[in-house]
Amino acid sequence: MNRRNVVKKVLVAAGSLALLPNVGNASGAGSKEEKNKATVGEWFTHFWGKTCDLSVVDRLAAPNMLLQYSLHEPRHGREDIKAFMKDFRNAFPDLNFWGTADLIAEGDYVVGRWEGGGTHTGPAFSDFLVGSLPTASGRKMHFTGTTVLKLENGTITEEIGLAAGVTALQQLQLIKKI
Prior knowledge:
Helices cover about 30% and strands about 30% of the residues. With about 180 residues, it is an alpha+beta fold.
């Protein structure tokens, strides 16, 4: 399938993408796409899910992985990514994201839609591109997004997501509602 058809397939399916946490074992048999979806499913379960096991970063992320979302500065490399998530979860102890439909995979790419959020009950948090939160503000965020992950040789090299950042920032009172 050529690049144009891949893009078309992703765009057509954009309304029904997801991050499924239970798509199998990343080391199991199957097509490259199925293995990549299994890897991403494991990543989202153990990195973005209700509980976080940072050892998943060492297992599934490439040493120079890029993690980039619209609400935060880009993160590069395993240690930077682990530090980001540690700080994010300390600030939002109930942080949890889950898939909203099936993952789509083509070649080295996996795309999914998700939703989630959390309540800021932890330390001050200043990782947002716009503003920061004081200690234990009690502010809640709940929003959706779409993520594209690139894998090479079974490891995640890029995770680039576009989230409903305006919604989250309004909920956290970092920007005003119009």
